[in-house]
Amino acid sequence: MVFASEPPARARASAKVDLQDRLKEALRNPRLHEPLLKTGSQVAAVCDRCHGVGGNSPTPDVPNLAGQNTVYVLEQARQFAEGERQNEFMRRMIRVMTSDEKIGFSLFYGNQKVKPAPAQNAALTAKGQALYTKDCESCHEDHGRGDEHLARVAGQQPVYMTVALKRYRTGSGTRLDRDMAESLVTYTDSDIDAVVAYMRSMP
Ligand code: HEC
Ligand code: HEC
Questions:
Q1: Which of 56, 66, 81, 201 would disulfide-bridge 94, Cβ 3.0–4.6 Å?
Q2: Is the C-beta atom of 95 inside 6 A of ligand 1?
Q3: Which domains, from first to last, does the chain contain?
């Protein structure tokens, strides 16, 4: 709903806000949702090679996109395109895509199901569960599926998560987030192994 008293700053919203606004509109409006989803499923053919068909990655160092939250995926696409999250391949690929292609793949992957990966090592997973409950579930939720804005970690690929957590912890600049850096201040490498084992096993 648009209010007459809305401040003019809204009208000067940045391209980033427009992209997220259009996604929100698509989530509300089936007539926009349907064609964007179709575009997304076509674009996804380009991503299959690395992220797997339907976004279940065949390799532990490439993230699943299946079941990942739409707002989060679209925000990561922006970060890659602008070089805030550093990955040269992803930057070059996403920079040439249209807004509707980016919104489309975010919707498409959000609709896919993650394949479950049962726990491999019970002791490590139990240690990880205790850490997760204490330090992580306040944001990523007890089920690990986050919310529409926040990253899903349930079932995510283990090598990918380990690398991501170490990047946040060292703050090297490849990928920065203050909340994540603070959450990991006291974490040793073996704490990271444990929490990753638990998140990987979450359905
Ligand atoms: C050549 C392999 C390759 C292809 C093709 C590829 N990606 Fe990626 N993608 C990666 C890798 C590797 C990462 C992890 C990058 C990192 O964290 O450094 C990644 C990360 C991502 C992320 C971040 C996921 C997260 O959990 O934060 C998104 C979103 C993404 N890719 C979307 C796409 C989309 C959409 C396509 C197709 C249009 C695509 N990728 C094609 C390799 C690929
Ligand atoms: C205060 C909220 C908050 C807390 C607490 C938190 N996270 Fe996060 N987490 C985030 C945000 C926000 C992001 C996305 C940051 C970005 O854009 O790179 C994220 C990203 C991640 C990612 C990357 C997901 C992906 O697909 O690339 C992993 C893995 C993760 N968090 C695990 C954890 C673990 C493990 C803990 C506990 C030790 C934790 N988080 C605690 C907010 C939080």
A1: 81
A2: no
A3: 13-110 (1.10.760.10), 122-201 (1.10.760.10)
